[in-house]
């Protein structure tokens, strides 16, 4: 891991020169002896490919993952592969998934031929009734011109209409995604993100596409060169997060997590909770964005990736691959299997999940992210109590953390709050 004291991650995730002053400064730097390096990663495999996941988790929890191997490590953290499998078994799984993605993409391509062309659309191709829009070739927007390549047939199938209506919104969001990165100066890279999100929206028609999914998917596109691998990595991330994006006329997807956050603050800091209620912040809606896209907007791109991988390492459950594989649905939320847990198996859990297992808590609405928000509120405790006279003040004070949070400190504080909450909740 050369140049570990310098800004080495910047060479992997280069910022466009004109955007240098607009992005938060990254705090994360790979550190020898703490960060999981490529050498340490390769040494963690046995001769036939079994991974020492316990050792890998310890290293990630101490110092994150070196940029050169983030993608392949994330595939394990998100349950794409079983650490107990061999190299050959994983190659078979990878090949099967690539073929499956190609088939799904071909299915979408038949309906909208521009998919897979290296281009994408930002203008609607059908109206709400499924009728094709007027020939967009007269538009001045170059992305709109390529809408001509879409199918011109009228559509009656509700699933197809819903999906086709989402494609231009995906395109508009793709254009806005991580604009400061040199990577997305390339239309081909933008189109790759659009293709993956479009195929996912077709597969998960129950929720479809929702703004914010682009922020979750973008790092996978950057980290994994093969589009199919990036798709499955994103799909596995969405197994954990998809309920965040479900909403109806009466509720929002993260409502249950906001309720959990309220309960946590009420338990560990009743004075702050009471004050937030008094200033009309008791529903904790100001934390909506943080939970929705896992702090992507509160950290620099590099620090956001570091935060995610440490969180996923802390939440890691060794049964995750089996539970996903046993699910019949491509979009299953993946509830954990619960075999007898030996001390040896317990070491293969991340430290956050291990504490849940030891205390018998399996609440799916209490992920580490909720405790991370609680840790942010605790760091702003004095300001909130002193300065917040209304909800607007709460939003401003919490919003001041953007680009200033230290991910490592925030996660350590989150673990302390988790422990405190579990102890108080037992009483």
UniProtKB/TrEMBL annotation:
<dbReference type="Pfam" id="PF00566">
    <property type="entry name" value="RabGAP-TBC"/>
</dbReference>
<protein>
    <recommendedName>
        <fullName>Rab-GAP TBC domain-containing protein</fullName>
    </recommendedName>
</protein>
<dbReference type="GO" id="GO:0005096">
    <property type="term" value="F:GTPase activator activity"/>
</dbReference>
<dbReference type="InterPro" id="IPR000195">
    <property type="entry name" value="Rab-GAP-TBC_dom"/>
</dbReference>
<feature type="domain" description="Rab-GAP TBC">
    <location>
        <begin position="64"/>
        <end position="315"/>
    </location>
</feature>
<dbReference type="InterPro" id="IPR035969">
    <property type="entry name" value="Rab-GAP_TBC_sf"/>
</dbReference>
